[in-house]
Each structure stands twice: as structure tokens, then as C-alpha cells.
Fold each of these.
Amino acid sequence: MESKGTHVYPFTFQIPQGNFPSSFHGAHGSIIYSMKVEIHRPWHLTKAFETEFNFATYIDTNQPHLLISRWDSYSDYIPDLMKGE
């Protein structure tokens, strides 16, 4: 039996391989990553804790296509609506 107080249980976990988007919170949606931990002990109620964490997608900046400068512009002709009055 453990004594009362703060106890630290080190653990590690690995995020599965995949192309996951970075965490994001916006006005019209969000991408949230969270983890849930449950503590099961004999003769005790199960305790559950959940927390969110930030995840940043790895971007290899050594890829040549990321080094190319990019720009774009758009123009359109709008006729003079007051002409002829």
C-alpha cells in the first residue's frame, strides 16, 4: 500500500505512424489530441484522467519543393457602373 501524497509514474507512448494534422483551434473548428489514463486498483474505484496535448506535424524543410518562392495575384476588370449617367 502506498502512502498518501504525490506519486509519479513515468511512462512513454508512441504516436502511431501516419500523416496527422497539427493541433488547431479556430472559429469554425478544431483539431484536438487528447489522452485518457485510467488507474485500476483492487478494491478501489477506477480513477480516470483526460488531458489535451498539442501535436505539431514534422515538416522536413530540406525538401527542394519547399524552398521555391511562391506568389500569386489576381486582377479583374470592373466596368465603371456610373458611366453614361
Amino acid sequence: EVIREELQKIPGIEIREQSNQFIVRDCAALPEGFCLKPQGTDKADNQWKVYVKGQGGVWFCHRCGNKGSWYDLKRMTSDSSPVKRNANEITRDDFMKVFPLPDQNENSRYISTLWDNPHRSNDEINAIREYLVVTRRLTPATLMRYGVGCATAKFPEGNKYVSAMCMTFPWVMHRDQMEEQDRALKT
């Protein structure tokens, strides 16, 4: 029910419900970011291509392959305006930045930080390793194969940033998503 309400907030959207999912008629009516190919949607075979799960809000566009989570859905359909701030305050927009893929050397350092000398006495790294291997039951071989590592990152806390050790996961993005992201980071 919540997902239907979120989708119905979008002006001009037409949805149908089928097998506990919502199907969107025209992806051009969706906010920017849902479909990477919103042109040419007036053709019958280009309609009803975006599927949104009724439970969980996971969505997938069968035209372009773009997909996302409930969080992405909420962020893209949110009608709230950004909070006004002075230059020293941190807002939710600071959390939305996605940074470029690390170069191969940097990613190798992340992997090395997590896996080289696994008995070193860094509690944060040991906790990450234990979470991945013991709690999530992923083998070290699988994690290494997919380039999982760890690195220190800074996160907003109050009006400042604090450092924390984090898991790193390489990801794949479409070229146009990376170019858009790079433009956003330069502004």
C-alpha cells in the first residue's frame, strides 16, 4: 500500500497492479533516474516496462536495465525540498553523493587492507572480516574474487566529519551514469 501511494505521488503516472507488483505504463512520466532511455516511450512495445515490487519497493526497468531499491524510489519520488543551510552545516544532500570508482591500484589497496596479515590487531578490520565471513557466511575466496576490501571514509556527524573503517564493494555503472555523477561532483 505504501509503495502504491509513493508511485501515485508522481504527476501523470499510470500504473497497474499484477502479482504483487506495480507496472508503470510510461517511464518518461517517472522522475529522472528511473529509466535511462525515456525517449520513444509512445510506442506500444516500449510501454509497461518498469516493474516495482509491491513488497520491498525494488524496481527494474526492462527497457534499459536500470534498477534500484525502496530507498532509491523514496529519494526519487520525494517532494520535500532541500533544507536551507549555511556553508558549515551538513544536510541530507551530503549523504547522497556517489563517488567515482577507485582506480585499480586504489581498489587493490582496499583489498590488501582487509586481507593482508589477517591476524593484525586492528579491531575495526577484524570486525569487518568477521562480519563478512562469520555473520554473512561469505568465503574469503569469494570476497577476494569480487574485490571486497575496506578503507577509511569520513561521515557527517553533527557539524563535522568523523573517520570510520568501511567495507568497500566495487560496482558497475552505465557510462552515462558515471558522466552525470562526475558533472554533479564538479558543481
